[in-house]
Amino acid sequence: MVRKVVQVIGELLVTAGVVLLLFVAWELWWTNIEADAKQSQAVHGFAKDFAGPLTPAAPTAGAPDYGKPVVAQAPGHGSMIGIMYIPRFGPDYSRPIIEGTSSDVLDTLGLGHYGSTSMPGAPGNFAVAGHRQTHGAVLDNIHLLVPGDKIYVQTNDGYYTYVFRNNQIVLPSRTDVLLPVPTQPGATPTEGYLTMTSCNPRFGAQERIIAYSLLESWQPASAGPPQDIAKQVADTRGKG
């Protein structure tokens, strides 16, 4: 009788182990496949409808002055703001930026924009969130950013170039990273910030890793893309 009970318990433990392995495989593999497909479709759809040229403007003697950045109104929840390109993450890295940070956005559509923060180009804090290991793993390599790395945001209005400054590990309760001037309550912003947030460590969620960047420049869609991402911008037309 005891032997039979031990055998049954052993079989249940094996079954539980198999179920757990299948769940881990689904979480770390299948969710990435599903999310990658939907994100690629979103990027392709945006690129297909983008009105600007896909080649950079001819070089000039000095840096062109395009005036103050155009700042769009935030779209409705689940709508697309644009595309983010991060060369440090590889030559094929292009991810959609979607309004909202609820699970329906982050688990499927890519980078989610915190609705309480600024839009690209505006003085203040343009803040986005993204998963690190599942659901497309859009910020898996956030820890690899090096000061001086360029991060590009493409919207229907043009291209916004941010320069990575530093990262910070904080507890999930640290919502001050989303302030107009990150971590500085009451401060009035005079610059444009890009703040990216994700879970830390890579396979956990006990902390948050925060990457801060500053707006360096912008150019309208009519000027074509920055030279560094011209090929990527053109390649997005072929995604789908």
Automatic annotation (TrEMBL):
InterPro entries named in the record: Sortase, Sortase_Class_E, Sortase_dom-sf, Sortase_E
Transmembrane segments: 12-30
Gene3D superfamilies: Sortase
UniProtKB keywords: Hydrolase, Membrane, Transmembrane, Transmembrane helix
Highest taxon, organism lineage: Bacteria
Coiled coil stretches, renumbered: none
Chain segments carrying region Disordered: 221-240
Entry-linked NCBIfam families: class_E_sortase, sortase_fam
Protein name: Class E sortase
Originating organism: Arthrobacter methylotrophus
